[in-house]
Amino acid sequence: MPTALPHLSTPRLQLRALEAHQAEVLFALANGPKIADNTANIPSPYTLETAQAFIAGVGEKYRASECLNLGMHLRDSGELIGMVSLRLSARHHYGHLGGWVAAHRRNQGYAAEAASAVMHFGFAELGLQRVGSQCFGRNKESARVMEKIGLRYEGCMRQAFLKNGVYEDLLGFAIVRGDWEQRL
């Protein structure tokens, strides 16, 4: 696996590692509406210290083949509008997509554009066999993103995740290498 974090381009986005000076922007965006509520691992409140530690650890996690975390930056302005991730299981050749988009940039196709690019990188550059994702059953927007980029719905794990004192259903989606290759 490569050791340098990739820099991926899409028609409207630059997907690249965050820099230390972006911690305050990340801190502000990650505290936005629905970010922590719709994700499994983002704490609320999201502190500046959390943002700084996250940014500092991104390179190490990628070099350890654990996770690829890239900021979604608008190509025209460089504005950070969200994050996209691919948690890796080298043993199983599997990647788990995740991410979020800031409230003021939602419903414009950025999540699908970023997730599609990271999925392509996982198959083409990391040699993955399978890319999948999950979302809470109530998160219809994330489910639409997964289907839009070609992940197939694989089922619902009822009450599989305890979030803020509520048992949440998890919807599972995935695509395997052969299906991805047919889409090219």
Automatic annotation (TrEMBL):
Residue ranges constituting the N-acetyltransferase domain according to the UniProt record: 13-172
EC number: 2.-.-.-
InterPro entries: Acyl_CoA_acyltransferase, GNAT_dom, N-acetyltransferase
Catalytic EC class: transferase
SUPFAM superfamilies recorded: Acyl-CoA N-acyltransferases (Nat)
Matches recorded under Pfam families: Acetyltransf_3
Molecular function terms, GO-annotated: transferase activity
Keyword terms of this UniProt record: Transferase
Protein name: GNAT family protein
Organism, scientific name: Pseudomonas khavaziana
